[in-house]
Amino acid sequence: MKKPSLFLMLFAALFLISCGNVKGDKPDIDPSGTDSDTPEENDPDEIFNDGEPAPDEGPQTGDEDQDLPLPDGDNDSPARALGFESGFIALEEISYKLENIDRRTGTANMWYNFQPADENPETKPLFVFYNGGPGGATSILFTYNTAKMTADQAYAGTGVAENESNWNQIGNLLYIDARQTGFSFSEIENVESTSAREAYFSKDNFNVFADAADFIRVILRFLDSHPQIMANPVIMTGESYGGTRTTAIINLLLNVADYAGGNRIFYDGPLFEEIAAHFRKIDSSVSGMPELEVVKQQFGHQIMIEPLVAGETQFETAGDLLEETGSPMYEVESETGIDFTPCREQHYGSCDPFNNALYYLARANRDVYAYRREGDWLTEYTNVGARKMLDIDLWEALLLNDPRKIGKLYASERTNAFRYGTSESDLETLTEQLPKYSVLRFTKHVPFALVRGNLEETFGELNRYDIHFVSLNYAAHLAFRNHHYESFNGEMFVENLRSGVRTFITNAEEDIIIYAKAIPLCLKKFTGYGISDVDIEDESFTVRFTDGSNASVTFPFYPEAPHSVPVILPEKFLSDVKNWLGN
Asked: Reduced to 3 states, what is the DSSP secondary structure of residue 144?
């Protein structure tokens, strides 16, 4: 049987940017990226919404030096003030084992942006945000209605505006770009060598566990450099493939003692010791590897936005649902007059129900991320926000700290940096390598990855293998192959639920790429992992286990919402999270 495309999900997570305004449809936009999307001459008075002058006093940015790269594991470094800050956290080479095969990661410079809570940040949880792909930047969650400022053109026009639905009201925010995506980049000594660059994009650097380990290292090093919040609750908040990433991160943390004992398919000794050292700092009773209940006190919550959590099993269940009479496919058929033929009625060749639905939407010119919209609506809408980050003044307004003080943004400090295996001019030829079922085949436009904006005017011209920002890194996307389809991803998700991880999953009405209705149903298929049944209610579901225990999952419905819920319903999303945290 043909596998559903991993890449479908991955691309989704990154480019999920969505649908109409809370009070109605959002305005039409020009996706061409012309100067009409950017204030003329970057007049600071035009950076804020409706042409109003910039406020005299905005959010305070704290220590002037805080946006320098964080020290790499230096536990004796001075504490940083809890202000707005950005920078890179360096990851060293690491030797590890995956499925009893010796592997080794390359170095990486991981981009982060931190935003403190509006009030009493020392007492508030830390929300860690990331989009998916894999290979997708975290630009969507950052620019569309979770952070202090928003680039959403429905609220900010051509500039940047204060976000009334910002999550700073409930906690501290940390945005992270995955290895080689967004603003994160890597370096090798022989950067001119095509074979050396291409070798970097292998399973050594790009698999579910290595990816989760990257994020754990970044989070722990950030916390250890900010002792004011070192022991605060951390709430993973991931979109699309970000659900798989969240699952692996929490599973590694909760079960670090078992992983360190060599009882799992992944072994990373330096990572396990770094986790243990972190918990020994915040809990003097911890010796050796921390036990599950200790870890869960800090890492026991997860928010998943239209997530992939059960690999191929989730896609198979979604395909079956989409073939049922009355599914969104038949709604599109009624509206367009274009016939939808389910697999059960096709009498030629093989047919995968999930991919059959996606091909149908492409033929009907509907968006797989928001099926009531025209094809590529989501991608084109959110590209506008991403482009604003490539304008130095708009980017500074979004960050609320000065990126000009970050050394590794300057060409002079990244002579050995690279983003692709091939040269930039050859990037679009990577489309020829896409698997047959990649979601990228369902879009009319190659996602913009080569747009530079005006950053090089400030930071200098980069070498031909480098670029400041990549919305979706094709090479990283391809390097994951089918690793996040594997059954162990669903098994880890079930294990996390059974361990008592509090879980919030969105159910967006218009999203097809992650058809959320399939999530509780697909879990019923994991009977070999202790599930006896799943009870589904209006906005929650309960997973029941054979030992009599159960796990309740908050599962709110978002009418008319696309893959990226905060884009269209930021106020409701924030309100639902507040209620969930209060329960």
From this structure: coil
User: Residue 14: its pLDDT value, please?
Assistant: 36
Determine how many CB atoms are found less than 10 A away from the CB of residue 42. Answer: 16
The single-letter code of the amino acid at 222 is F
Return the amino acid letter for 229.
I
Both structure tokens of 425: 């001019």
Contact predicate 174/401, CB 8 Å: no
Measured CA to CA in angstroms, residue 229 lies from 122, 232, 344, 441, 489 at distances of 5, 5, 55, 44, 30
Helices marked H in 514-569: 518-523, 565-568
Interval 94-142: pLDDT, tens: 999 999 999 999 999 999 999 999 999 999 999 999 999 899 999 999 9
Q: Which domain covers residue 315, as residue numbers?
A: 1-583
Token look-up 């599109």 returns 332
What single letter denotes the amino acid at residue 327? S
Nearest to 49 by CA among 169, 163, 167, 168: 163
- Domain containing 346 — which CATH number? 3.40.50.1820
Whole-number Å distance between alpha carbons of 444 and 15: 14
From residue 256, give the alpha-carbon distance in Å to each of 262, 274, 495, 511: 10, 11, 13, 35
Q: How far apart are CA 282 and CA 230, in angstroms?
A: 7
**Pick from 450, 558, 539, 392: nearest CA to 41:** 392
Q: What percent of the chain has pLDDT over 70?
A: 81
- Number of domains comprising the chain: 1
Query: CA-CA distance, 29 to 382, in Å (whole number)?
Result: 10
* Cα 7 to Cα 474: distance, rounded to the nearest angstrom: 10
* DSSP secondary structure letters along 159-206: S-EE-TT-GGGTSEEEEEPPTTSBT-BEE-TTTT-HHHHHHHSSTTTS
pTM of the model: 0.86
For residues 290 and 277, give the distance between their C-alpha atoms in angstroms, rounded to a whole number. 9
